[in-house]
Design goal:
This protein is of the alpha+beta class. It has one domain. It is 47% helix and 15% strand. The protein has a four-stranded antiparallel sheet with strand order 1-2-4-3, with helices on one face. Helix 1 packs across helix 4, helix 3 packs across helix 4 and helix 3 crosses helix 5. The radius of gyration is 17 Å and the shape is globular. It starts with a strand and ends with a helix. Bound molecules: zinc ion (ZN).
């Protein structure tokens, strides 16, 4: 799975275009080891709310869901662990009548622009590593620690930008 496009919009949403290298292997049915390992690394994922056609819990849904849907929840989980809140939402869509098979559109909310960028990259890395069954290469604690630093940087940047816009308004006044 690979993120090929990132688009920020509406000040708190990001849209990702995600592609599967093998368009016929996009479901956890083809890779049951991915959700199994992911829930081990991130037990809190089992408590995620998930709206799906079957009305399943997220854990049950993960037995047969699109890998990018897992990725969506992981980006939300990583941000939630850093922000210590669980209010962000997401959605995964696809339409292979329009797009090539294996392409997905993943939408996620964010509070901190730099944090969400980091979370996207970390989530992509984790899904790819789990796909290779390479759990040893992942340290969740270390990743969260680094994401916290990114979040602090993002907060400072937000502060600088607000000061900038105040300064601009004073110049314009
Ligand atoms: Zn879901």
């Amino acid at each position: 799975m690979k993120v090929v496009e990132i688009l920020f919009y509406d000040s708190n949403h990001v849209k990702l275009v995600v592609e599967m290298p093998d368009p016929n292997c996009y479901s956890t049915r083809h890779a049951p080891h991915i959700p199994k390992l992911l829930f081990k690394l991130f037990p809190h994922l089992a408590r995620h709310r998930c709206e799906n056609d079957n009305g399943f819990s997220f854990r049950r849904e993960c037995q047969a869901t699109e890998i990018p849907h897992l990725f969506e929840h992981l980006i939300i989980e990583l941000q939630g662990q850093v922000l210590r809140s669980g209010t962000l939402k997401g959605e995964t869509q696809w339409n292979w009548r329009v797009d090539p098979k294996g392409r997905f559109h993943v939408y996620v909310e964010y509070e901190n622009e730099i944090l969400v960028l980091g979370a996207i990259r970390v989530a992509e890395k984790i899904i790819q590593a789990l796909d290779r069954r390479d759990v040893e290469s992942i340290s969740v604690d270390e990743e969260i620690k680094q994401l916290r630093e990114l979040a602090r940087f993002g907060e400072r940047l937000k502060g600088v930008r607000q000061k900038d816009s105040v300064a601009m308004e004073m110049i314009n006044a």
